[in-house]
Amino acid sequence: MTNRWLIILIVFGMTVGSVSAEDILVPDDYITIGDAMEFAQYGDTIYVKAGRYNERISIKEGVNLVSFAGEDGDELVEGPGHKKVLRRTLRTIIDGEGIETPGYLVSFPKDTTASMRMDGFTITNMPEYRSGLNLFLVEIRGCSPVFVNNIVSGNRSWGGVLCTGLGIGMGPPLETVAKPVIRNNVSYDNHGPGISNGANSAAVIVDNEFFENRFPGAGEGEDDAPGIGMREYARPRIENNICYRNGAGIGGLNLDSHDDPLIVKDNTLYYNRRAGLGLRALGKVDSNVNVIIESNKIFGNLRAGIRLSKVDQARIQYNVIANNRRTGISFFNLQEISVEDNDISGNLRAGMRVLNVPQAVFKRNHVYNNVTAGIDFVAWQANNNQ
Fold first, then answer.
1. Are 162 and 137 in contact (CB under 8 A)?
2. How far apart are CA 149 and CA 122, in angstroms?
3. pLDDT (tens digit per residue) in 182-219
4. What values do phi and psi take at 36, rounded to 5?
5. pLDDT tens digits, residue range 334-369?
6. Coil, strand, or helix at residue 311?
7. What ranges make up the beta strands (E) of 57-211?
8. Which domains does the chain have, with CATH numbers?
């Protein structure tokens, strides 16, 4: 009986050892990231030493990709913008220069809830392909990785990062909602959004910096690329980001019904070419588009500080909205608004402009030194106002 149990324990021990996670080092164990990824198994971590890796990366399900820190890689140093970055991020580069076949430079596996992490890379240089495809540098589609400490820049085909639950051809939603954590990254100098959220994206977007993301040649009166963008029933949580010199700081188009509100909190949005924050819903009958805009600093944008259109309900509170080149806050065709405890000053038109909003509450706002009016009511038919 003793020998029998000994055999079972030995077999069990071999089985456990065979599925243990491994660390893989590039280029020591494998010359390229792609070769290491082909070998890697679920739960493994690939560490990449400093260098320039001219290759397209398809991350395997359950595999982590991390830049190698060494002795000083986790030190904070000056980055391309205002935010300090890790030294290892600057010196570990995934470079798309010269890759002629169109495709995302980095892509995660689709329709999975597996835990994954990409940490500490500069992802850069995608050419404008002749196909005219709008391709992001990084694709996160129907999965929920942690994407942290990266720099995403220099895309001439479109934008920085795509988070979406849509299918491959941007058709019907995948079954898995995308819930990535996008934290402590820098996205700049892309010919499209710094980050874009499609339907079924519930990304957590916190502590990032977005600047100089613009559509090339966008003129006055045309839509321009946002630092953080969203469409349809995407509902990311957007907190504590810095967005400046983009087309818009944060922008949403064709927002559609969803049970969850869109939360925009504690961000700094300034010197953008259009609004600091601009959201436009579809305006359908019986839609459900609710937004909460709280404790943001929004100033110096070349149009409105905040511009909302066709949203059902908006709660705007504890924001500082100052010195924008047009109106501080513009409301167009909303059903219900609550504007409380904001500081709105120095805007070159009205502090607030309200057009066709049947239900509105204004409380304890400090509205002063705006050029044309504190609050400009247009086509006003309100009730239950305070």
1. no
2. 9
3. 999 999 999 999 999 998 899 999 999 999 999 987 76
4. -65, -40
5. 999 999 999 999 999 999 999 999 999 999 999 999
6. coil
7. 57-58, 64-67, 76-77, 85-86, 92-95, 106-107, 117-119, 122-126, 138-141, 146-148, 151-155, 161-164, 181-183, 186-188, 195-197, 204-206, 209-211
8. 22-246 (2.160.20.10)
